[in-house]
Specification:
Blueprint (H helix, E strand, L loop, with lengths): L19 H39 L2 H6 L17 H6 L7 H6 L6 H4 L37 E8 L4 E7 L6 E2 L6 E2 L4 E7 L6 E8 L14 E10 L4 E9 L7 E7 L7 E6 L9 E5 L5 E7 L4 E6 L12 E3 L6 E8 L2 E7 L10 E5 L7 E4 L2 E2 L3 H5 L5 E7 L6 E8 L9 E12 L14 E6 L15
Parallel strand pairs: 19-23
Antiparallel strand pairs: 1-2, 2-5, 3-4, 5-6, 7-8, 8-9, 9-10, 11-12, 12-13, 13-14, 15-16, 16-17, 17-18, 20-21, 21-22, 22-23
GO molecular function: hydrolase activity, hydrolyzing O-glycosyl compounds
Family: Belongs to the glycosyl hydrolase 43 family.
Keywords: Glycosidase, Hydrolase, Membrane, Transmembrane, Transmembrane helix
């Protein structure tokens, strides 16, 4: 039964003679309705596109397989015995799964870093295991050696129809530059591998080598070279490499630039600088559909990201820059674009320890960027909160399957950095975002980004490595 509220205010407009107030109210009401209808039509339009994409995916058996959730059940080992004196002096906090991950003597070590017996070897007849990715296992090149391309990225060369994987060549001993310094390996150079299928990789050698004798050189072996990325400039015909350059104390905080006539090098190192006069650490570059390239880097003590276009020759930054994700403390950016929307995966800032990834989206690469939540699906809660014990580095589109990508990440091994592993997993765009955004009235128009955990997976049957 409805009860009339005698205190309820009437909804009629009280206006003076001439009706100015009611005319104004009606006009503004109509404007509000038109705005809401426009936003609704945009949402319906994008939902329609998303629905078509999702429908196409769901009817493909390989996509149904990749979207299946795999769970992991990790049993924590019993606590180690401590002497009564030690226990009395300092009560021990409960051991976490991240502690076990970082402990080279942990009983769980083989789960995070399987031994050489399980290595992925494309040159052996793997039978039913052929072309399967096994995240976290040792991955061998065609010479039978572990691939050394950490913090790397992929370039597809249109002329040779070949994929090139560039990354940090860390095949040296791990040490600490000083007592409180982070684990590190001397610069050896940038490794390059080539492939036609994104699974079988041939070692093309070190395409940018360290400087062995000149201590003032950016590439002197005791300095830092991280996250190299290469793009091709269609106008100049040059392959351009950008990378993070630093000293052993991480105070230089710069980017470095190198160039080559060929994807397999050698690359000529040009210079380093602080882009836009700001410090730069974790970084990546992104080449848009119109040929404009952008630098994205962590800055201001990693509290924010900066993004700005490169010059036409890709050899420098322009004077345009925007600050994004301010105060969010994100690093390890990996960008990609889908149906006109820019997406980015980032990690938190916890050194070599894994942490939670976040997905972000924007209608313009220059921002504003909005956070959509954790993209990780499957495993278990700790797998999702640690990005499957890995850190983002790059996202590769899968030709012929719109909305499907390979998420590339590194599982760092701070006890022996040369034995860090690769975690490649399927990334699919589609479905509603996880959390409301700060604008658009809280209703995001972008699709969800999902990274699915699999112990073993392969690309959809019939995919073509040729773009």
């Amino acid at each position: 039964m409805r009860i009339k509220n005698k205190y309820r205010k009437p909804t009629t407009f009280h206006c003076n003679a001439g009706g100015r107030c009611s005319t104004s109210a009606v006009v503004w009401s109509l404007v509000g309705c038109l705005v809401m209808l426009h936003l609704y039509s945009l949402a319906r339009q994008k939902d329609g596109v998303r629905g078509e994409l999702q429908l196409g995916m769901s009817h493909h058996p390989q996509f149904r397989e990749l979207e299946a959730v795999e769970e992991e059940n990790i049993q924590m080992p019993p606590p180690r015995k401590r002497s009564p004196r030690a226990a009395k002096r300092k009560p021990k906090r409960p051991t976490t799964i991240i502690d076990e991950f970082l402990d080279e003597n942990s009983q769980l070590r083989n789960m995070f870093f399987p031994d050489h017996k399980t290595a992925i070897d494309p040159m052996k007849d793997a039978g039913n295991d052929s072309s399967y990715y096994h995240p976290g296992r040792i991955w061998l090149d065609t010479d039978g050696n572990p691939i050394q391309a950490h913090g790397g990225g992929i370039l597809f060369d249109q002329k040779s129809k070949t994929y090139y994987w560039y990354g940090e060549y860390k095949d040296g001993p791990t040490y600490h530059a000083h007592k409180k310094g982070a684990a590190r390996v001397d610069i050896i150079g940038v490794g390059c591998y080539s492939s036609k299928d994104l699974w079988t990789w041939k070692n093309e050698g070190i395409v940018l080598a360290a400087e062995e004798t000149k201590e003032t050189h950016d590439l002197y072996k005791s300095n830092v070279l991280e996250r190299p990325k290469v793009i091709y400039n269609d106008k100049t015909g040059k392959f351009v490499m950008w990378m993070h350059i630093d000293d052993s104390n991480y105070t230089k905080a710069s980017v470095g630039v190198a160039v080559s006539d060929y994807p397999t090098g050698p690359f000529d190192y040009l210079y380093s600088k602080r882009p836009h006069d700001f410090e730069s650490r974790d970084m990546t570059i992104f080449k848009d559909d119109d040929g404009v390239a952008y630098l994205i880097y962590s800055s201001d003590d990693n509290s924010e990201l900066h993004v700005g276009p490169l010059t036409a020759d890709y050899l420098d930054v322009s004077n345009v820059m925007r600050r994004i994700l301010v105060g969010q403390h994100r690093e390890a950016p990996a960008l990609f674009k889908h149906q006109g929307t820019y997406y980015m995966i980032t990690s938190g800032c916890t050194g070599w320890a894994p942490n939670e990834a976040l997905a972000h989206a924007a209608d313009s690469i220059m921002g504003p960027w909005e956070t959509m939540g954790n993209p990780c699906v499957g495993g278990n809660k700790m797998f999702r909160l640690t990005t499957f014990f890995a850190q983002s580095t790059f996202v590769v589109p899968v030709p012929g399957f719109p909305g499907s990508y390979i998420f590339m990440a590194d599982r760092w091994n701070p006890a022996d950095l040369r034995d860090s592993r690769y975690v490649w997993l399927p990334l699919i765009v589609g479905g509603p975002a996880d959390q409301p955004l700060d604008y658009n009235f809280g209703f995001p128009l972008w699709s969800r980004v999902s990274i699915y955990w699999h112990r073993k997976w392969k690309l959809p049957q019939g995919w073509s490595g040729l773009k």
